[in-house]
Amino acid sequence: MTTIRRNALLLAAGLVFQSGMIQLAVALGTVTIVAVTGVDSILGLGPAVFLLAGALAVGPAGRLSDKVGRMPVIRGGFVLGVAGPLVTAGGCAAKSGVLVFLGLGLCGAAQSIVLLSRAAAAEMFPPERRARGMSIVLFGVVSGAIWGPLVFGPMFGGRQMTAHDLVVPWIAAGAFTAAGFLLSFGVRPDPKDISTAYGSQTGLAGPAAPIREILRRPGVATALVAAIGSFAVMAGVMNLAGYVAVGHHHAQSSIFTIISLHIVGMYGLVLFVGDIVERLGRRTAMITGLLVMAVSNVGLARFASIAGMSVCLFGLGLGWCLAYVAANTELVDLAAPSERGRLVGLSDLLSGFSAAAIALGGGVVYTGAGGSVPLAGAAAGLSVLAAAWVAGNGPALLPSAAADA
User: Fold this and answer.
1) Which residues lie below 8 Å from residue 67, measured CB to CB, with a gap of 6+?
2) What contacts 272, CB < 8 A, 6 or more positions away?
3) How far is it, in rounded angstroms, from Cα 160 to Cα 288?
4) Which residues fall within 8 angstroms of residue 79, CB to CB, at 6 or more apart?
5) Is the per-residue pLDDT at 372 higher than 90?
6) Which of 144, 162, 204, 315 is the most exposed place for a label (fewest CB within 10 A)?
């Protein structure tokens, strides 16, 4: 267990540094696009590129991790996380929209690949403790709530949000990810090798089944809907929140307050969420989390102050955490070690595409259909639909889901 905990803490530490880069990409991706291109109507395209690149990268990355192990793939994600901010900084310096989009795409690919750490952590623990294992690693991302106000916030004090002003923060973001890359070499043995010892406990061992067969297993579709629905709504709204705040005439430095509290909601209580998920039952946790997200989006339609938006974004993150941890823990349980990479990768791929569609469509809705009210209302409706679907479908037939039976 000492080895497992050490690996989990190192994976969490890697996400501590990765989260610095991600927060900047989330908070200023839309602003960077507009500052470089001067075109307001494409504000949703930046987040869409970020999310689409992540979706396209994570599927192949997951399948590759089933063959070569989790850590070589995760380290590759860190390398992309160094390159992405540097390319984006170059795009800001040269005022090149092409370079900025390429850089944001590399950042998105890095995020999705490095976040495979959550599944790698879960599979190292016994089945009944996997939600807890995932929580330990995800807790590392809460440090992003510190990077923003303490590091990035002062960089924008008294400045306009010009392309030139964005160069240094993007370079700093790449330095954070480089530290995470170095830490990743301490994770050994590979989490996939550790997980093989639990195959006989779940009855899922041996060669990988075709993905179509995996998707037909009881509980897989339910967990996928919860994972995809929660991530898509959360990420789509989160990536537009910075521009919405500017649209409410708030200072650019205030964006980091909103995003920081959102990250606290996403990960600040995650150490407790793992235990809550296992006590509530995973299906109940999925439904509850999705409904909390719906209520939070309704609040965004009503409150335009920094305090109001921060509270709503906190609730959005907390609801996502509950639904997403429950759904992903279930996916890990429902797949053999030789299948987990491809199943989690498929979930992330579909989540990324869905989030990109919401970000891109949300940008159009925001600029052309009345601002934040229709945007937040649509996001709330999608959360309710996902919750209703999960509620109408039975739980997985596993001992860990017995509380929902």
Assistant:
1) none
2) 135
3) 41
4) 110, 181
5) no
6) 162
Tell me if the pTM is above 0.70.
yes
Lowest mean pLDDT among 106-120, 135-149, 195-209, 371-385: 195-209
Peptide bond into 374 cis (omega under 30): no
40, pLDDT greater than 80: no
- The burial class, CB within 10 Å (0-12 / 13-18 / 19+), for 197 is exposed
pLDDT at 206: 59
Whether pLDDT at 37 is above 90:
no
Spatial distance between the Cα atoms of 19 and 150, rounded to a whole number of angstroms: 14
Q: Yes or no: say if 180 and 113 are a contact pair by the CB < 8 Å rule.
A: no
Alpha carbon distances (Å) from 14 to 35, 176, 285, 403: 31, 9, 27, 33
Please provide the distance, in angstroms rounded to a whole number, between the alpha carbons at the two ends of the chain: 31
Question: Which tokens go with 199?
Answer: 């195959």
CA gap 323, 291 in Å, rounded: 9
Residue among 340, 336, 63, 68 nearest 207 (CA):
336
Domain 2-404 has CATH 2.70.50.60: no
Please return the burial class of 271, using the count of CB atoms within 10 Å of its CB with bins 0-12, 13-18 and 19+: middle
Residue 71 structure tokens: 């850590």
Count the neighbouring beta carbons within 10 Å of the beta carbon of residue 279.
11
Q: Whole-angstrom Cα distance, residue 339 to residue 206? A: 10
Read off the pLDDT of each residue in 37-49 and give the average, rounded to a whole number: 74
Q: What is residue 11's three-state secondary structure?
A: helix
CA separation (Å) from 167 to 87, 110, 170, 402? 10, 19, 5, 52
Which of 72, 61, 163, 122 lies closest to 330, judged by CA?
A: 122
